[in-house]
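Please predict the structure of the following assembly.
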Amino acid sequence: MVTSITSFGRSGLYDWLIQRVGAAVMAAYTIFITIYLMTNPELTFEQWHALFGQLWMRVFSLVTLLSFISHAWIGLWAVLTDYLTVRLMGNKATILRIFAQMMLGGVAITYLVWGIEIIWGFN
Amino acid sequence: MNAKKAQYFILCGGFSFVFLYSTLYNAARLARRFNHRAQILFRFSLILVLTSLNLPAMGYKVILTVNKKRPVNLDLTTINLPITGFVSFFHRMTGIFLFAGMAALLWMLDSSLDSQESFAAVRDASANPICKLILWVVLAGLAYHMVAGIRHLIMDFGIGESLKGGQIGAKIALVTAIILIALIGVWIW
């Protein structure tokens, strides 16, 4: 078995599962927020603030954020390893791909830290 | 038939003849130890294996696959994308787009929770036509990506995996996404 790959879970099956579980969590969160906003058209700051102040909403948001990061990372890795290849780009492809992965990884970490700060940072 | 093809033909034919003979010989010896049912099963699978091995000897496939310098055509401008390909390609595109679009959504969440003033600022920004357009495009991407993703999940359960099923699924996903995107537009404006 090849284990020296740079994917998220370091195995195709594990990546597949993480991506799908994350997708289900994000779908649930999106549907929840959509229904909440539609049933509260005249939403006030107090209402919104109170919703996100509850522990279950903070946990739900955090799990969704983690799902987003892992889901996006697996997806972007798949796209990068499909198109930034030696066959398509020549010998510099690997360096280019690692560079792109590092850039996107930086963005992902920024989202993660920023997201945690938003979810847990206010009182 | 050119010379190169003929060489492969003879080579594959020769190899499979030797392979066929030795396998049959060994199989016959082994079969004596098996019961009748196992013998039938064994012979049947042997026929399958030998038939597939003989395909190259007949001058098919291997001649094509042996040539390592075969052309690979992945020039997207020359490929006529079928609807399943289009739905898949767009799923990827919206995925990449949403990774960037997440910044806008996080900014909205951050501002909406920060203070009464910033919450009002998000509300006011949502009334701006350009902001409305940006929000609509991001949410449209999200709607499409979600519908296409749900199609993936359904297919993971083994539903609609055939060529026809895939085409029907792609059409349903496309129509559903367009309806959702229109509804989001109505909701924003």
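The radius of gyration of chain B is 30 Å. The interface with chain A takes residues 72, 74, 92, 95-96, 98-99, 102-103, 106, 109-110, 112-114, 116, 119-120, 142, 146, 149-150, 152-153, 156, 187 of chain B (CB under 8 Å).
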